[in-house]
Amino acid sequence: LFPTIKIHNNNAEMYKGYFDDQIAKQASTAVSKAIAAGKKNMEVQFPPVPNVEEAKFGTPLNAKFTKTLVAKDLKTPFAPGSNLSRNIIAYSNVYWAKKLAGAVKGGALGGKPVAVLTAEQVNFEEIKNMGDLTRSGKVFQDKARKEGRNNECVIAINPGGEETWDRLVSAHGQPDCPFVVLNNAYSTSYDLGNRKGFEEVYYLKRISKGFVFRSFPGNWEALLEKPDGSVEVLKSYKTKPKLREVSELVREESFKRYAMGNDRYMSGRM
Question: Structure pTM?
Fold first, then answer.
């Protein structure tokens, strides 16, 4: 699903990014560059599992990702009916937060403590390997707010509409420390990114027949997904484009080239 490190390689196989650590490497690099550039409030956004729309119903790719990576990395039980099997997006987001924590805290040696807070259904007692994540909690709960530490970074998973983000930082953030909103599930602006000044440091959104991609400090890009699962950059934007503009460009180019023959459901990319 994701572009490889060589984003402009038109033969990149998108879905490999879930299984070869490319997503984690790309996103961590973008976060590190943004922090070095003085960014504090950041947004990281990408589909947390290969097939988000089908998460409730299950797909082979989602099952493979959850069993072989998320369950093993977090050391969390996985079986039919388990919390992980019923909430794969919620637990996958903790997996990604764990992957990003090293970059957020400021390096492999030393660095700041990193809290992960979520609005999703996660039983943190079941997670036996938190890595660089130093504590966990629920967004906007008094317990999570009171447990905050000086000089602590925060990764907030799917905290809700961006109209609450300033209040979120006030409740849980620390002065001059990175605060990352990770994989917010919906946008109240119905457009790309946010309007609250959180730098979109790593952003990948599926649109019809492709994606919108940005990795700090690079440009925004319109990506066409081809029938074989590879991607091609159709256009680069120095500033954040409108969702409608990018969607129309990618959809029209796909139809011009492939007519009705570019369908990820029919081509087995599930």
Answer: 0.90
* 215 SS3 class: strand
For 25, the 3-state DSSP assignment is helix
What pLDDT, in 10s, does the model give residues 178-214? 999 999 998 777 899 999 999 999 999 999 889 999 9
| CA-closest candidate to residue 261, choices 222, 227, 213 | 227
Beta-bridge partner residues of 213: 204, 221
Q: What is the pLDDT of residues 77-110, one digit of tens each?
A: 999 899 999 999 999 999 999 999 999 998 655 6
Neighbours of 36 (CB within 10 A): 10
* Distance in angstroms (rounded) separating the CA atoms of residues 42 and 169: 11
- Mapping DSSP to helix (H, G, I), strand (E, B) and coil, where does residue 82 land? coil
User: Which amino acid does the sequence have at 116?
Assistant: V
Beta bridge partners of 233: 223
Phi-psi region of 103 (alpha: psi -120 to 50; beta: other; left: phi over 0): alpha
